[in-house]
Amino acid sequence: MARNIVRFNPLAELDALQRQFFGDDSFSAFKGMSIPTTDVFTEDDKRMVVEVHLPNFDDEDIDISVDEGALVIQAQKRQKDEEKGKRYLVRESSTSFYRRIMLPERADEEHIEARFENGLLDVTIPFTEMPSPKKISIGAGSPAQQK
Question: How much is the pTM?
Fold first, then answer.
């Protein structure tokens, strides 16, 4: 009869993944891997700003588009080395990034601007002006009394 009883932990797999991604595991395969972050915020209710941290990408690796009311940001970096002195013919690696962010109704899609500098993509989406409220004057008497 077995003397060593191992207690079942249903969350052990989740704990292991958490240690890998957040660096609590010293043998993590993901150590040193940077996951791009995306910040979305508004400035003075006049524009929306999307900041994407894309280190190790160049501006020609990035594609920005507007599709059915959403801002789509895609980045893909491919590296291809061909070394004839080694046994393998081609060595390829790729890194990709994709975000789809729904735009508010007031977004002015025609005037979106994007800048990329030092690994930071900055996309500015201006808002259209809100229509000013229409003032309705009050006439003398009610409509039923005017007949």
Answer: 0.62
